[in-house]
Design brief:
The protein is α/β, with parallel strands linked by helices and about 450 residues long. The protein folds into two domains: about 110 residues, Urease, subunit C, domain 1 (Roll); about 300 residues, TIM Barrel, CATH 3.20.20.140. The chain is built from 14 helices and 17 strands. Strands 1, 2, 3, 4, 5, 14, 15, 16 and 17 form a nine-stranded mixed sheet that branches. Strands 6-7-8-9 form a four-stranded parallel sheet. Strand 15 and strand 16 form a beta hairpin. Helix 2 crosses helix 14. The N and C termini lie far apart (about 50 Å). The protein binds zinc ion (ZN).
Length: about 450
C-alpha cells in the first residue's frame, strides 16, 4: 500500500527541520520519502495543502482503568493520598469489560488528539483475580490500531504493612513476578516496527514493598526491559519515604536498582537540583504530567532545569481520575502554561513542548530509531491538522505554534500509525465512536452502582 500526502502546508519533522509545500510518501509501514513534488504511482493521495503535519504524539503515562472514574464529585477537590484512598474502593469493583472499554475510551480520546503510541500503567489487580486484565487492554489497542507499550503494574504493600492501598487490591510478590514473566514472554515484541511491547511498573514507593522494587529491577536488567513508576509526586510521598525508609524518594529508589537508563519516572515534581543532575547522569527519563499535577495541587516539576541538564523528558496525560481528559494536545498546552507560571515566560517554548511530546517520548521508550519524528525510514506515525477553524484565525503566522497557543477543537484531521489510517476526517476509522459512547457510559454507570457511590 502506497499513500502520498501531497503538498503539506507546513511540515514539522521535529528532527530535520520545518518545510512548506512538502510531500510525504508512505510505503506499507514506513516513511519512504519526504521531499517536494514527489511523483509516484500510489494507491491513495491526500491533499494536505491546507493542513499541517507533525509526528504522532507519544503518551508515556496513563491509567486507562481510571477513565470510568473521571470527575467523581467526592474526589474533585482532594490531594493525592485522600484521592487514592477514595478511589481504591471504587476501582476494586472494576470488571474485565470495564478494563477493555475504559482502555478503548482512553485510547480513542488520545488518538483523536494525535497520539500514535501510548503506554499504560495498569497496577491495580483485585487480589489474585483478573490477571488477564492487561489482555483486555491489548485487545482494545489492537482494535483501535494504537502502538502500545503497557506496563505490568503492581501493588504489594497494603495498609496492614504500612502502605496506602487496602488488602483487596494488592497481590503477593511471587504471583506478580510470575505474571510479569508470563506476559513478557507472550507479548513483548522487540521488532523495530512492533505494535506491542511490555514494561514493568510497580506502582509507587508507598504501595510496593522494597523487595518487589528490587526483584523487578533485577528481572528488568536480565531481560532488558523498561521500568516505570511514580516518583516524587507530592510532599506527602517525600514525608512517607523519609519516615518509613529513612531516604528521600529518589535515593530510596536508587538503592533498589532504579538508577539506570531503562527507568522512567512519572511526575518527578519534588526533586532538588542535585537529584536532577544525578538523574541526568544516570540517563533516567521523566514523564511530565502537568494537568494531573495541577488538578491534585501537587506542584510544578522543574522542567526547564531538566531540559537544561538534558534529561529525557516526555509527556503523559496521567490517569483520567486526576486529569479527567486524555486530550493530548491540551496536555501540551498545559505543559507550556504550567512551565511559564512556575518558571517564567521564556522558560518553555512551543518547540520544547513539541519535542517532549514526540522525540522525547521516543527517547524515554528507547524507540527513537522508529518513532518520534518524520524521517525517511522511520515508521509512518504521522498526524495532520486542519487550521481552517475560527479559533485559528489570526494565528496562521506560525501554524505549528498555533496548535499549542490557539484552537478550541484538538481533533486531528488524519492520524497514521505504522502507515495505516486510524483517524480520517476527524473520526476514528477502526471503531464505532457512537457505539463506544453508549457502551462506555452504561458500563461506567454500572461501576458506580456496584461501588455504591450513586
Ligand atoms: Zn499516575
Amino acid at each position: 500500500m502506497k499513500i502520498l500526502i501531497k503538498n503539506i502546508d507546513t511540515l514539522e519533522t521535529v528532527t530535520k527541520g520545518r518545510f512548506n509545500n512538502y510531500d510525504i510518501l508512505i510505503k506499507d509501514k514506513i516513511i519512504k520519502k519526504v521531499a517536494k513534488n514527489i511523483c509516484e504511482t500510489v494507491d491513495r493521495t491526500i491533499d494536505a495543502s491546507s493542513l499541517v503535519a507533525l509526528p504522532g504524539f507519544i503518551n508515556t503515562h496513563h491509567h486507562f482503568y481510571q477513565t470510568f472514574t473521571r470527575n467523581l464529585p467526592k474526589s474533585q477537590d482532594v490531594s493525592l493520598f485522600d484521592w487514592l484512598k477514595f478511589h481504591y474502593k471504587v476501582w476494586e469493583k472494576l470488571n474485565p469489560e470495564d478494563i477493555y472499554l475504559s482502555g478503548l475510551t482512553a485510547m480513542a480520546e488520545m488518538m483523536l488528539t494525535g497520539v500514535t503510541t501510548t503506554t499504560d500503567h495498569l497496577y491495580l489487580y483485585k487480589n489474585n483475580q483478573f490477571d488477564n486484565w492487561i489482555e483486555n487492554e491489548i485487545q482494545a489497542a489492537k482494535e483501535i490500531g494504537m502502538r502500545f507499550y503497557p506496563g505490568r503494574g503492581s501493588m504489594s504493600l497494603s495498609q496492614k504493612d504500612g502502605g496506602l492501598p487496602p488488602d483487596s487490591v494488592v497481590q503477593d510478590e511471587a504471583r506478580i513476578m510470575a505474571h510479569c514473566e508470563d506476559i513478557v514472554n507472550k507479548y513483548h515484541d522487540r521488532e523495530r516496527l512492533s505494535m506491542l511491547r511490555i514494561s514493568l511498573g510497580p506502582c509507587s514507593p508507598f504501595s510496593v514493598t522494597p523487595e518487589l522494587l528490587k526483584v523487578s529491577a533485577e528481572y528488568a536488567k536480565k531481560e532488558e526491559l523498561l521500568l516505570h513508576t511514580h516518583l516524587a509526586e507530592t510532599k506527602d510521598e517525600e514525608k512517607f519515604c523519609i519516615g518509613k525508609f529513612g531516604h528521600r524518594p529518589y535515593d530510596y529508589m536508587k538503592d533498589l536498582g532504579w538508577d539506570n537508563d531503562r527507568v522512567w519516572y512519572a511526575h518527578a515534581v519534588h526533586l532538588n537540583n542535585k537529584e536532577i543532575a544525578d538523574m541526568a547522569k544516570n540517563g533516567i527519563g521523566i514523564s511530565h504530567c502537568p494537568s494531573s499535577n495541577m488538578r491534585l495541587g501537587s506542584g510544578a516539576a522543574k522542567i526547564p532545569e531538566m531540559l537544561k541538564k538534558r534529561i529525557n523528558v516526555s509527556l503523559g496525560v496521567d490517569g483520567s481520575a486526576s486529569n479527567d481528559t486524555s486530550d493530548f494536545l491540551a496536555e501540551m498546552r498545559q505543559m507550556l502554561l504550567l512551565g511559564r507560571v512556575a518558571w517564567g515566560a521564556g522558560a518553555i517554548k512551543t518547540m520544547d513542548v513539541i519535542k517532549t511530546a514526540t522525540i522525547g517520548g521516543a527517547n524515554v521508550l528507547h524507540w527513537n530509531d522508529t518513532i518520534g519524528s518524520i524521517e525517511e525510514g522511520k515508521a509512518a506515525d504521522i498526524t495532520l491538522w486542519d487550521l481552517n477553524d475560527v479559533s485559528y484565525i489570526g494565528a496562521q503566522s506560525d501554524p505549528i505554534a498555533a496548535l499549542i497557543f490557539s484552537g478550541r477543537c484538538h481533533q486531528a484531521r488524519y492520524v497514521f500509525v505504522n502507515g495505516g489510517i486510524t483517524v480520517e476526517d476527524g473520526h476514528l476509522k477502526n471503531i464505532d465512536e457512537q457505539m463506544l459512547i453508549k457502551r462506555g457510559k452504561t458500563a461506567s454507570s454500572r461501576l458506580w452502582k456496584r461501588a455504591g457511590i450513586i
